[in-house]
Write a structure and sequence with these properties.
By secondary structure, the protein is α/β, with parallel strands linked by helices. The chain has helices at residues 4-27, 30-37, 41-55, 71-98, 111-128, 180-186, 235-243, 253-261, 291-307; strands spanning 60-62, 67-69, 103-109, 132-138, 152-156, 165-178, 200-203, 211-215, 221-225, 230-232, 248-252, 266-267, 275-283. The strands form three sheets. Strands 3, 4, 5, 6, 7, 10, 11, 12 and 13 form a nine-stranded mixed beta sheet that branches. α5 links the parallel β3 (103-109) and β4 (132-138). α1 crosses α2 and α2 (30-37) crosses α3 (41-55).
């Protein structure tokens, strides 16, 4: 019968042996390693000797002047250091998950989405997490999270391949919209090809802003490239232009939903399927997420769920 306490004890001894050996290599000797670990020099020597005996290999070259790893010892050190780092991160993860979210949280978000959907819920978030301070930067450009010092960003649409982590918060649907006055004056397009005869409003901040990805009623994917009558780098301005009767805009539902409910705009071609886009929180990679980042993502994900699908 296996003695479980003995097995558990041996596993703990193995980590201690690894730590003693790795610290000797890091510090270049037993005396400094003992000082670093806060134990006696003889205890460090005992752990290293036990490790060598268990492995059946000499890991250190010992002279009166210096201590250095053997070839086998150097290979073992690399793996042992990884194991010890993983163990340290596991401890840090538990500590982090139990600590209260706090500190400065820097967020990057597109202006339209930030103004319409993040700003209204920030007050509730800050009341629930009073130890967090928020710096929300509204802009319509792609920011480099790590180099520019952001903790997270909210991004809409297809994500580029990167090392960043991402969590899907909700979805939005893009549709072509225009005002009733515009359709009364210029007529309503009946099919995708009819768009060539209409005044189109483009979002200029995207490299492909003049290309609309549409789906025909048959399911065929189409890309419509048009010059456009007006181009601006702000979605709210595009919506305002559409409401004013200046043309047809291709906008996400989180922007046009309220105006459509009020009858200020209508769908340009109602039987066309909309383009669904994901809305994501993206944040730097790592084995665990900072409490302030996790708290904010959980909060806004819950807030968006409560709003229901109609707003998007």
């Amino acid at each position: 019968m296996v003695n479980e306490e003995l097995v558990a004890g041996s596993k703990m001894d193995r980590l201690t042996e690894m730590e003693a050996f790795s610290t000797v290599v890091d510090q270049g000797g037993f005396t400094d390693a003992a000082r670093k670990m806060g134990i006696s020099k003889s205890a460090v020597s005992k752990h290293v000797s036990s490790l060598e005996a268990r492995l059946g290999a000499r890991l250190l070259n010992r002279t009166t002047r210096r201590v250095s790893p053997t070839e086998i010892g150097l290979a073992y050190y690399d793996r042992a250091r990884r194991v010890l780092n993983d163990a340290g991160e596991a401890d840090a993860l538990v500590t982090s998950m139990q600590s209260e979210p706090s500190g400065l949280l820097r967020i990057s978000v597109a202006t339209d989405f930030g103004v319409n959907h993040l700003s209204p819920v920030l007050g509730e978030f800050l009341q629930e997490f009073p130890d967090i301070t928020v710096n929300m930067v509204l802009n319509n450009r792609f920011v480099e999270l790590i180099s520019e010092g952001f903790d997270l960003a909210v991004r809409i649409g297809e994500l580029e391949d990167s090392t960043l982590r991402a969590r899907k918060l909700t979805e939005t649907t893009k549709r072509m919209v225009g005002s009733p006055e515009y359709f009364k004056k210029y007529g309503r397009p009946e099919k995708i090809d009819d768009l060539n005869e209409h005044k189109l409003l483009h979002y200029s901040n995207l490299s492909n802003g003049s290309v609309w990805k549409l789906t025909a009623p048959s399911g065929e994917k189409r890309q419509v490239r048009t010059a456009g009558w007006l181009s601006v780098n702000d979605g709210q301005s595009l919506l305002n232009a559409a409401i004013s009767g200046l043309g047809i805009a291709y906008l996400p539902s989180f922007l046009y939903a309220d105006a459509m409910e009020k009858g200020q705009i209508q769908e340009a071609i109602p039987d066309l399927p909309g383009e669904t886009q994901g809305i994501y929180a993206v944040y730097p990679p790592g084995r665990f997420t900072q409490p302030k980042v996790r708290a904010f993502i959980d909060f806004i994900a819950h807030s968006f769920t409560e709003k229901g699908p109609d707003i998007w």
